[in-house]
Design goal:
By secondary structure, the chain is mainly α. The chain has 12 helices and 2 strands; from the N terminus they run ββαααααααααααα. Helices cover about 60% and strands about 5% of the residues. It is flat. Residues about 1-20 have low confidence and may be disordered.
Length: about 240
């Protein structure tokens, strides 16, 4: 054996040649494309899946996105681009329009659960929807600050509901009885343990997620209507 270059060994009488693989070049556009492609086939996403698609190792991908949360943020951003525009307010009162807006956000979060982790940062990173919603509410008679608070309260309410809704869906898929289903079981088996709840006369209709969402939004709108700076009437129509 002889040494031809530092760290390179060859058989005597031959010339050594170092071989070093070239690290494939990646950027955020390529990563976003890979995330979209991988997401078409997987319900979840992993660093390894995206790295394999790009032809790089996980460490290289990590340097660009900082971990799995970075990939999920990218996927959330891609999901946002697929959303329809904010619902038009024409022909609505402010309260009926907020009901439509609430369903718009609920649908978006149910279809794209990654958005839940970032909510407004992913749904509206440039504040375009927030500006549009606030301006529409001001047209309805809201003071600007009240319009902003109404939006914030509604988004917070929707986010909390959808988080619980997704958990219920996952429990059902896993064969585990969701929380309120277990309540029914307890009321049937031992009504004396829960006397106040037994007097509510709950039925299977109370497990309807759509009806429950409408009830939650009704409560939210009633709360918004009572705040300083909200219009005196909910019936103003644009």
């Amino acid at each position: 054996m002889s040494i031809t270059k530092p760290g390179t060994f060859t058989q005597a009488g031959t010339r050594g040649k170092s071989k070093r693989g070239r690290t494939p070049s990646i950027d955020m556009d390529k990563i976003a494309h890979a995330v979209r492609k991988v997401s078409l086939d997987e319900t979840d996403i992993s660093m390894k899946d995206v790295a394999d698609h790009l032809g790089v190792n996980v460490t290289t991908l990590y340097r660009h996105v900082g971990g799995i949360d970075g990939l999920r943020r990218i996927r959330a951003s891609l999901s946002r681009n697929d959303l329809p525009p904010l619902p038009d307010a024409t022909g609505h009162s402010w309260s009926s329009w907020l009901c439509v807006v609430a369903e718009y956000y609920r649908s978006a979060l149910l279809q794209h659960p990654d958005l839940l982790d970032f909510v407004q940062a992913a749904l509206d990173p440039d504040f375009i929807n927030l500006e549009k919603e606030a301006s529409i509410l001001v047209e309805f008679g809201f003071e600007p600050r009240a319009a902003l608070l109404a939006h914030s309260f509604l988004i917070t309410t929707i986010t909390g509901y959808v988080q619980q809704e997704l958990q219920t869906i996952e429990d059902t898929r896993s064969g585990y009885a969701p929380y309120y289903s277990r309540l029914f079981q307890n009321l049937d088996a031992h009504p004396e343990r829960l006397p106040t709840l037994s007097n509510v006369n709950l039925s299977q209709r109370d497990l309807d997620r759509d009806l429950n969402f409408k009830s939650i939004v009704t409560y939210a709108i009633a709360g918004i209507a009572s705040q300083k700076g909200a219009p005196k009437s909910q019936q103003t129509v644009l």
